[in-house]
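Appendix B. Chain record.
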Amino acid sequence: MKRGTKEALLDAAEELFADYGFAATSLRAITAAAQVNLAAVNYHFGSKEALIDAVFARRVEPMNQARLDALRVLQSASGDAPVPLDRLIAAFVEPALELSHDRTLGGQRFVRLLGRSLTEPAGTVHDSLRGRYEEVSEQFKPAFAHTLPELPAAELYWRMHFMVGLLAYLMAGADIMRLIASSRLSAPSHNDEMLPRLVSFIEAGMRAPVQDGNVIPGSHPVSGAQV
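Structure tokens predicted for this chain:
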């Protein structure tokens, strides 16, 4: 099936941004890779900044919508009671793992793009990403707080921060897992093998006792990596 002009531009931009960065990738390079004329960018997106935003939106919005849909189902089933922690964690991490391992959705290419976004000091890129995750953050933070009422707010923020960092590591794929751990490490080949272990691991960390001196009242990690 032939791609339309808009999809061709998004695919080319995603690939080139991931490989060369946002500042170093020109619109001419993108249109050449997409085999369309330069006017097509202005017609479909209006600017390079809007194109960057659309590249992220295409992947992030469906992933985050899946997270929110799963959360609403869990909250509806739980009523006023807290959502079970393992199910809450799964609702957050599973859509991200599915995206990163789905070749038909360009998952690994998008993971490389996320990595690029964290190393390149492009304010518009960070603003675009931050805005895409606001609703997810606003919905999941109180859900975790309801499930883990014993955790001070600052400690909960840190543990969610660590959860996101671990998820980003796993999204990077089997190659980095083998590189860091051992060349003999046999990485899980499917999310069905990884997900229950990941959820169990995160749940144990979330439930770990708060140690004296670990929490500075009112402190929490600055928003950084988002997945």
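Further analysis of this model is presented in Appendix C.
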